Amino acid sequence: MNRLTTPFGSYELTRFPEDPRDRLRAWDAADEYLLRHLDAGTGERGPVDPAGAGQITVLGDRWGALTTALAAYHPTQITDSSLTRSATAANLDRAGIGTSKSTVTLLTTQDAPPERIDVLLVRVPKSLALLEDQLYRLAPHVHAGTVVVGTGMIKEIHTSTLRLFEKILGPTKTSLAEKKARLIFCTPDAPGAVRPTAADPWPVTYTVDEDGGSGAGLTVVNHAGIFCADRLDVGTRFFLQNIPTNTDGARVVDLGCGNGVVGTAVAVADPNAEVVFADESYQAVASARATYEANVRGGGDRAQFLVGDGVAMLPAGSVDLVLCNPPFHSHQATTDATALRMFAQTRKALRPGGELWVVANRHMGYHTHLKRLYGNSEVVASEPKFVVLRAVKRHERP
Questions:
Q1: CA-CA-CA-CA torsion for 208, 213, 214, 215, nearest 10 degrees?
Q2: How many CB atoms lie within 10 A of CB 211?
Q3: Could you tell me if 82 and 281 are in contact, meaning their C-beta atoms sit under 8 angstroms apart?
Q4: What is the mean pLDDT of residues 242-260?
Q5: Phi and psi of 12, rounded to 5°?
Q6: DSSP string over 193-261
Q7: 3-state secondary structure of 270
């Protein structure tokens, strides 16, 4: 646990799920830079007095550092990440603030935004598509006097980032860099004006080609922020060419479901299967639901859509098969922590004899971790870049 000291107070903050071995902080120099600016004022629009600023909306807060520091001013946080939402709630509770409606409002990227936004603070996301979608969604709610300030590390802010602010909201400039962080200042042109004539292009839809294994011919719907949004990525394609299709009415989890094409392929191949789509991203689960509904008619009672920390919310021993294409990035950091947590959770959720199937980049070496957790690991299929691994839960641990 680390302490963030800001002009608005000092707070002990953690990421989520909390792990004493995790050396990554719940904030960085970009968060600190923005909070200093709000207090002292630098650049085009400052200083900003949060006490008299009106409605403050925080978009893309990584682990709740900005929302927690500004909690006294009743901000609204908008996030795509259920882990961010949980981290924010935990950090607010630790600060003695809580998440009561009178203090902080927590919204997802799928929720309707505040009717009027007077200060818009944007932590630039890794996904340019997600930024585009959210700026389009928020643009009708800003006005000519809205203070718009973005923040990010230099490596996260590109010319394309600034162009999006400029195109959707208004004239945009950047600050000088401090500790490898930079601020973005944007001035909306007119009340509620969206500059381009085009509408928000998200979500996008495509059809899986004939080389897509059991996913061939499926309609896939992607909301903004989903990996490889306009085509089937090579890892998922390889997985679809090798996943089991004889599920025989099993309860199957598409873990880290993304757009849900893997779980939907199972549902189409086996109409009796019960498929659970699980992801920590609200955009992903919305995509999975849309993909499922585009391909499976009248099967609503055979599908479940869960946003949260992997399969931690499922009862122990309740699952027959888990199919997983785990991420190996957390924001800008490369890590296997998320995948290893998924594997451990899965072992608890599987019934004895249940199976975990994983597709992964060969270099991640997941077979070693699976052998340690399950006592076995088998290579089902391989090619130069990817492997499909299978582990079986042989028995319950004492």
A1: -10
A2: 11
A3: yes
A4: 95
A5: -85, 120
A6: ---SSSPP--SEEEE--TTSGGGTT-EEEE-TT-SSTTS--HHHHHHHTTS----TT-EEEEET-TT-H
A7: coil
**284 pLDDT above the threshold of 70:** yes
Q: In angstroms, what CA-CA distances link 104 with 92, 96, 101? A: 9, 13, 6
Distance in angstroms between the alpha carbons of the first and the last residue of the chain = 32
DSSP alpha helix (H) spans, 300-375: 337-349, 366-374
Q: How far apart are CA 47 and CA 209, in angstroms?
A: 53
What region, left, alpha or beta, does residue 332 occupy, with left being phi > 0 and alpha being psi -120 to 50 degrees? alpha
Q: What are the φ and ψ backbone dihedral angles of 11, each rounded to 5 degrees?
A: -135, 140
Residue entry with tokens 């403050």: 56
Q: Which residues contact 356 (CB under 8 A, 6 or more apart)?
A: 321, 322, 324, 343, 346, 347, 350, 370, 374, 390, 391, 392, 393
Output the pLDDT for position 296.
95
Residue 310 has pLDDT above 90, yes or no: no
d(C-alpha 45, C-alpha 185), whole Å = 7
pLDDT above 90 covers what percent of the chain? 77
pTM of the model: 0.93
Res. 13: pLDDT tops 70? yes
Token pair for 90: 């935990």
Which pLDDT belongs to residue 329? 45
Burial 322-342 (b: 16+ CB within 10 A, else e): bbbbbbbebbeeeebbbbbbb
* CA 220 to each of CA 175, 241, 266, 276, 327: distance values in angstroms, whole numbers, following the listed order: 40, 16, 14, 17, 20
The structure tokens listed for 241 are 């060419």
- The mean pLDDT value for 199-225 works out to 96
pLDDT confidence of 195, banded at 50, 70, 90? low
pLDDT band at 42 (very low <50, low <70, confident <90, very high): very low
Residues in CB range of 201: below 8 A, 6 or more apart: 132
DSSP sequence for 67-131: HHHTGGG--EEEESBHHHHHHHHHHHHHTT----TTT-EEEETTSPPPS--SEEEEE--S-HHHH
